[in-house]
Amino acid sequence: MVKNGIKFVIITGLSGAGKTQAMRCFEDMGYFCVDNLPPALIPKFAELCSQASGPIDKVALVIDIRGGGFFDALFESLKLLSEKGFSYEILFLDASNDVLIKRFKESRRNHPLAPAGRVIEGILEERKKLNDLKSKADHIIDTTNLTPGRLKEELKNRFILGKYREKIMITILSFGFKYGIPLDADLVFDVRFLPNPYYIDSLKDISGNDQKVMDFVLNTSAARVFLDKLQDLLEFLIPYYIEEGKPHLVIGIGCTGGRHRSVAISRALMDRLKQDHSVLVEHRDIYKENRGDDL
């Protein structure tokens, strides 16, 4: 039972991954937000919210390793929160090491776990400390390639639009393996076995959003069989994800550069699923400057 209808979102993740930006997004979405609350105070804070005279039904708390030793009390506090009848979700923000280092250098900030050392040392130590928490997260968002606007859109899709849907929210994400596998992908499929438009002069410089590339990729028996089998697999899995209470499913479709094959297959898969499911499609690497899809 959810006490007084109050819903808590615990915002956590790597330092520099966008927790402050996420908190601003939640504020814009009408959440009551608190930054860096000591975890031991979460149950008491929840009680105060339930006793407030004004309507507080959505609360976002930023909890991270800035709390030092207090951070270790987080799991026990979340257990108490559930025992008191409050519902919560954990949002974990992540990003690649290279991007985190770049963000720290641009902001001229020291990493909280390496105030006098190298940033990478702090990042690696923080990943170890947060590994268990990440495994328990309800939502994992990789902000490596997200602008603040894209992050806000993603949070809105998950926490506002998805709130009123009984069905799971599905994001089909095309990407290039040369730029790394998306950290927030729940399922990843490799379509590099399909014929590559990169080697066709008339198709090399256009993307999978162009009908010519779509036709080239999809008009093969391998592509059609792959889509049939992938659709069957997803239709089998999706009800189980819904039964487990998973609100959002990220399906990664990867080719080498993320410009041709993965884009075309992602669009085709969306067309197959959108009749029965809430589906978004995103193309992470389609506009990368170093596009070479020739491996």
From TrEMBL:
<dbReference type="InterPro" id="IPR027417">
    <property type="entry name" value="P-loop_NTPase"/>
</dbReference>
<keyword id="KW-0067">ATP-binding</keyword>
<dbReference type="Pfam" id="PF03668">
    <property type="entry name" value="RapZ-like_N"/>
</dbReference>
<dbReference type="InterPro" id="IPR053931">
    <property type="entry name" value="RapZ_C"/>
</dbReference>
<dbReference type="InterPro" id="IPR005337">
    <property type="entry name" value="RapZ-like"/>
</dbReference>
<dbReference type="GO" id="GO:0005524">
    <property type="term" value="F:ATP binding"/>
</dbReference>
<dbReference type="GO" id="GO:0005525">
    <property type="term" value="F:GTP binding"/>
</dbReference>
<feature type="domain" description="RapZ-like N-terminal">
    <location>
        <begin position="6"/>
        <end position="159"/>
    </location>
</feature>
<keyword id="KW-0547">Nucleotide-binding</keyword>
<keyword id="KW-0342">GTP-binding</keyword>
<feature type="binding site">
    <location>
        <begin position="64"/>
        <end position="67"/>
    </location>
    <ligand>
        <name>GTP</name>
    </ligand>
</feature>
<feature type="domain" description="RapZ C-terminal">
    <location>
        <begin position="169"/>
        <end position="286"/>
    </location>
</feature>
<dbReference type="Pfam" id="PF22740">
    <property type="entry name" value="PapZ_C"/>
</dbReference>
<protein>
    <submittedName>
        <fullName>Nucleotide-binding protein YvcJ</fullName>
    </submittedName>
</protein>
<feature type="binding site">
    <location>
        <begin position="13"/>
        <end position="20"/>
    </location>
    <ligand>
        <name>ATP</name>
    </ligand>
</feature>
<dbReference type="InterPro" id="IPR053930">
    <property type="entry name" value="RapZ-like_N"/>
</dbReference>
